[in-house]
Amino acid sequence: MDRLVGTVVRGIRTPIVKKGDDVAKIVVDSLLAAAEAENITFKDKDVVCVTESLCARAQNNYASIDAIAEDVRNKFDGEIGIVFPILSRNRFSVLLRGIAKSGRKLHLLLSYPSDEVGNHLMDERKLYDKKINPYSDVLEESDYRRLFGQEVAHPFTGIDYVKLYKEIAEGCDIHFSNDPKTILKYTDQVLVCSTHTRFLIKDELKDAGAKIVLGLDDILNESVNGSGYNEEYGLLGSNLADLDMVKLFPRDGSILVRKIQKDLIEKTGKQIEVMIYGDGAFKDPVGKIWELADPVVSPAHTDGLVGEPNELKIKYIADTEFKDLSGQELTDAMAKKIAEKENNLKGKNETLGTTPRKITDLLGSLADLTSGSGDKGTPVVFIQGYFDNYSTK
To answer: Which one of the record's GO molecular function terms can you name (predicted)?
Structure first.
């Protein structure tokens, strides 16, 4: 019988993970229990996705705002320019609380009309109507209030982030510009707080003569008085745990995914791939927010998930090469062409409209949308059939 179902995605419920828990055992046991309850048959190339928060909580990879403050004090000796932070209570507000606790005078440079991930500081239409050029114009806080109002609430959260950040970092000055070098008018010591543009911005500032240039990835990249840390990403990928504590991006992810894979192979006899995922890489068309505030979608994954899809565009081939075929003849011809496709189709017309992205970014986005960020209780996502295609029987 021909196969009638393609990719299947399931959220897997697990116990609530706490400090010191054995994540590998919890993931494997939860998956096996779900398989028994739902009559799931394991297959080679199945994928298990584990949310990064599960790993970080079990590792107890947390840090207090006091640890952040001490690290900032140790690495800066004057006024600090905070360049391009995102507008977020969950992400940046608690980091700002720690940075401000360092006692250093702060200058916040905000990009506009939105931050790096699409949170808006103002209505773009008003920006246009007021003839403001975001590519060249520098605004001070007084300009911002005069032009856009004394209360500018985010459309989703209802928060005025300029007001919030001023309340958190008392005495700070806030400036608006899309040129990171603007900060050098106020201080030559800079903390770059963007995620995906951080390397280029660091280089720009160094070349422009900044005395100290660090990023969030350089803060808590090692432990401070026993705190959590992440040697590669520092504070990037962190989330609010409470008002005085952050959960950091997990460490040693490669060890964990290999352990889960090994245990699953032993239990199921199948070559199952495993990855850790954080934010998905997708953009909301209404709020215009790009979900990916983490430095990467997947900080760790097994070797079978390396690479990009190598797919043909079925509808393109059906409308061109096979335009005169129909019915079973078309089905058979398409399946044969897919089964015999080249190993590298990059640049070929037959791939027009396919998704040129990393496999882990695609799977991580799928997993993030499935697990959600609230009360579903499914921090493990099990994906079957992702690597199958129209020729798979």
So the answer is: ligase activity
**Residues 6 or more apart whose Cβ sits within 8 Å of residue 325:** 333
Q: How far is CA 130 from the centre of its chain?
A: 34
Instruction: State mean pLDDT over 253-259.
Output: 97
Cβ atoms within 10 Å, residue 141: 16
Report DSSP state, residue 249: P
pLDDT above 90: residue 154? no
Number of Cβ within 10 Å of residue 247's Cβ equals: 22
Residue with tokens 């393609």: 6
Window from 93-97, 277-281, 330-334, 355-359 with minimum mean pLDDT: 355-359
Provide the greatest CA pair distance for the chain.
Answer: 74
- Quickly list H helices, the chain: 23-38, 52-59, 65-75, 94-100, 124-129, 141-148, 161-168, 198-207, 253-268, 314-319, 327-339, 359-371
Residues 297, 302, 303: CA angle, nearest 5 degrees: 110
Q: Is-contact 246 267, C-beta < 8 A?
A: no
| Size (the chain), residues | 393
What is the three-class DSSP state of 180? helix
Query: What is the SS3 assignment for 134?
Result: coil
158/154 Cα distance (integer angstroms): 5
- Quote the tokens at residue 365: 């986005």
Contacts of 368 (CB under 8 A, 6+ apart): 277, 278, 279, 280, 291
Q: In terms of Cα–Cα distance, which of 14, 214, 180, 5 is closest to 84?
A: 180
Whether the predicted model's global pTM rises above the 0.90 cut = yes
Q: Which domains does the chain have, with CATH numbers?
A: 8-60+250-309+357-384 (3.30.1330.100), 62-247 (no CATH)
Can you read off the two tokens belonging to residue 388?
A: 């199958």
